[in-house]
């Protein structure tokens, strides 16, 4: 089967658009979607200059998503003096699994000559996820602890490195799953937060002084296409499932979404198109009303670690305390 | 036509498809979605809606199954 744009063999078919593309035209189309998203969301501010550059910290896990993101950002902005990029890798203390993906990160950063920083749960928090999963003092899924720790470290180190933005490799499937989960859980406040925290264009978001703004330049690209891109470009991506993975609800939603996409191509795109519009409306409604009860919430510093929190002690410190008590 | 479907790192299946059968039909027979794998023929990815023209394919699992290995965790609660 031929490429729609040239006479070479197609390597993929996109059911949602009907396109058949060869390797070169497929990779170009991924690059184009990522660059368009960066432009449309105004990720690069007009006042960034070589003298006063914008700093982007990229969450680089070594999985295909963050590896593809880092590769495309380097190709697009690697020589642009208005932007400084730093790759940040977090080692959760998962033996075997994370060691290999850290190798992938180091290899990529060396190849791209990009500054690379590695931080570990063990050094920063005094815990390893392998032990946390075993002790499990709160009777939760391992991902529930890990997500809190990872967000805390990403935020704090991005801040330490002077980041203007924190970029992550979330793809279209990730975002459509999160959208469906928020919707099915009936959590409109979370939808509002999602808009201001990471999916709104930078011109449309509410200023959030307490947190480093997030951006997800891959969020228009289906997961399969991200993986295919990594495969075709022979990028050093590590594709193995985390041994502690256990987010049952997300797994159920993923299966449902793949089924819908097969029967109705374009479902993921239309979920996100509608969700983004609703999320903006929700964000406008809930701004300054963080509890939904007319009372705003004051954020302050955690009295133990200094992280931003609405309580005296942040969630991360409370979890660490529970783990250490076992 | 009989085709060997080799899911890389997992099991092999023998699948029969009609003369109009596509690679997507092979995937359906082994209960995989075209959105979670790529089909490789002689090491090259092929469009899933293409007619099967080989007796051996490799299937590469591309995406995590049901986990949240997203780089900053989930943004839903």
From TrEMBL, chain A:
ATP binds at residues 59-61, 65, 90, 169, 174. GO terms for molecular function: ATP binding; metal ion binding; transferase activity; tRNA binding. Residues 56-235 form the tRNA(Ile)-lysidine/2-thiocytidine synthase N-terminal domain. The keyword Translocase does not apply. One of its GO terms (biological process) is tRNA wobble position uridine thiolation. NCBIfam families: TIGR00269 family protein (TIGR00269), tRNAThiolNcsA (NF047749). GO terms for cellular component: cytosolic tRNA wobble base thiouridylase complex. This is TIGR00269 family protein. PANTHER family: ATPASES OF THE PP SUPERFAMILY-RELATED (PTHR11807), CYTOPLASMIC TRNA 2-THIOLATION PROTEIN 1 (PTHR11807:SF12). Keywords: ATP-binding, Metal-binding, Nucleotide-binding, Transferase, Zinc. Zn(2+) 2 binds at residues 302, 305, 314, 317. The keyword Mitochondrion does not apply. CDD domains: CTU1-like. Zn(2+) 1 binds at residues 3, 6, 22, 25. SUPFAM superfamilies: Adenine nucleotide alpha hydrolases-like. Residues 2-27 form the 2-thiouridine synthetase TtuA-like N-terminal LIM domain.
From TrEMBL, chain B:
It holds the Pfam family SAMP2. Gene3D superfamilies: 4.10.410.50. InterPro entries: Mopterin_synth/thiamin_S_b, SAM_domain_containing, SAMP2, SAMP2_halobacteria. SUPFAM superfamilies: MoaD/ThiS. This is Sulfur carrier protein. It comes from Halogranum rubrum.
